[in-house]
Fold:
Amino acid sequence: MQLRYTRARSSASRGASLRGSKPSSIVDMEVRVLFFGVLKDVAGTLEDRVTLPEGARVGDLMTHFEERLPQLKRWRGSMALSVNREYAGLDVLLHSGDEVALLPPVSGGKREPGDLPIQGR
Structure:
């Protein structure tokens, strides 16, 4: 699956695009990709836009970024993914205009003496 990448550098997206020949019957769509926490540092940006063929899934998008950012593979087993602000798996079908977020693992804080107990525990 061929993806074209455009890095969003400002509100007016001006970036490089990965282009190649494709059959004229393939319809392209663009998705917005957000990086949070340490994944923002790995990607070197908070936001990217990727153009990909219709029928692409979250897994295709992840493969694209892992090829471009090999250090991202380290986080694959522990990061959460969302599409349009709902948790999503790698098999979720993407549509033009979707917003995909890559969320790093988070951990709870340390309970200190004197903290109030959490209900239900």
Summary: Residues 5-21 have pLDDT under 50 and may be disordered. The beta strands are 4-7, 28-35, 47-53, 80-83, 86-87, 99-103. The two ends are 47 Å apart (CA to CA). The first strand starts at residue 4 and ends at 7.
